[in-house]
Specification:
This protein is mainly α. Helices cover about 90% and strands about 0% of the residues. The protein is rod-shaped and about 115 Å long. The mean pLDDT is about 85.
């Protein structure tokens, strides 16, 4: 954009210094306009980043909770199996199995 604008200004006999200043002003205006246009998107991206971080934390928490629950369930099932085995052996129910 800079070169075509500069050439267009030169083609209508605008001096070099003036043409360069015009190009600089237009360039600054475009940068400002793009910055303003992008600002709401940056805000949304920042908010989404925070939400994703929160979700990751929740998922990690659920994963740890499930792991603890599974460990507790295994322990409980092991205990129940042990107690039932002892009862079966004590009452003679298991003699045909063993």
């Amino acid at each position: 954009m800079q070169v075509p604008l500069f050439r267009a200004l030169k083609s209508i006999n605008v001096e070099d210094d003036t043409a360069e200043k015009v190009v600089d002003v237009v360039e600054e205006h475009i940068e400002m306009a793009v910055g303003l246009a992008v600002k709401p998107l940056e805000t949304k991206i920042d908010a989404l980043t925070v939400q994703i971080g929160t979700l990751v934390t929740k998922i990690d928490s659920v994963d740890k909770g499930m792991s603890t629950s599974v460990t507790a369930l295994k322990w409980w099932l092991g205990s129940v199996t042990g107690v039932l085995t002892v009862i079966a052996l004590a009452t003679g129910i298991a003699k045909d199995i063993i």
